[in-house]
Structure prediction request, 123 residues.
Amino acid sequence: QVQLVESGGGLVQAGGSLTLSCTASRRFFSGSAVGWFRQAPEKEREFVAAVTWSGSTTYYVDSVKGRFTISRDNAKSTVLLQMNSLKPDDTAVYFCAAGALPPTMNSNDYPYWGQGTQVTVSS
Prediction:
């Protein structure tokens, strides 16, 4: 059983930056994938980014490429999502999720989820 806790959300003006963190209750293993998803009100949950726990491979949805960066710290069992040049369309609850390799964009492939952290980008 793995518990995930997200933090770092908040209110920011368009063009600003936020960094989200996801901390696990136990260490991730090399065979793990960690992803970030987001869900806006009355919309489906959307894949944002993922990283293999080894850190060798990252994935991003096209809409955040060049703006968001996913990284991990093995010692701290933490995954970060640095978000720059934020847009109002980025407003959503952001969830951290963990699953097996290979990482996918399908939320059904991630059995472990955090409670989410709210990101609000104003214009």
About this structure: The two ends are 40 Å apart (CA to CA). The mean pLDDT is 92. The longest strand covers residues 92-100.
